[in-house]
């Protein structure tokens, strides 16, 4: 049985050479690079009206933020205060907007 050589590059240098030969852009592996952090996170929200819980997306690039969102369980409007530090959600505060 004849062993055929692998058509794929076996070293990083060989891969870089293949990129140059074929005019390819290098692949950026962001998962291993500490310079890149996620821009979105999901937080667990506890509705102050019905007590239901659901996950909501938070844009981490905005830093601390306050906004109104409807509960995904009972549809009541909730005021959310999100504290973000170093690209990580630190606190989430849910409040009723009716003042009760």
Folded structure, characterized:
The model has no long low-confidence stretch (mean pLDDT 83). The protein has one helix at 12-22, and strands spanning 40-46, 53-59, 65-70, 77-85, 88-96. It contains 1 helix and 5 strands; from the N terminus they run αβββββ. Strands 3-4-5 form a 3-stranded antiparallel beta sheet, with no helix packed on it.
Ends: how far apart?
A: 80 Å
Count of DSSP-assigned helices: 1
Listing every helix as H and every strand as E from the N terminus to the C terminus, the arrangement reads HEEEEE
Count of distinct strands: 5
If you average the pLDDT, what whole number results? 83
Estimated structural class: mainly beta
Radius of gyration: 24 Å
Shape: elongated
Approximate strand percentage = 35-45%
Helix content: 10-25%
Poorly predicted ranges (pLDDT <50, ≥5 residues)?
A: none
Biggest sheet record: 3 strands, antiparallel
Strand order of the largest sheet: 3-4-5
Which structural traits does this protein have?
100 residues; mainly beta; 1 helix; three-stranded antiparallel sheet
Q: Can you give me a brief rundown of this structure?
A:
The protein has 1 helix and 5 strands; from the N terminus they run αβββββ. With 100 residues, the chain is mainly beta.
Architecture blueprint of SSEs:
Blueprint: H1 12-22, E1 40-46, E2 53-59, E3 65-70, E4 77-85, E5 88-96
Antiparallel strand pairs: 1-2, 3-4, 4-5
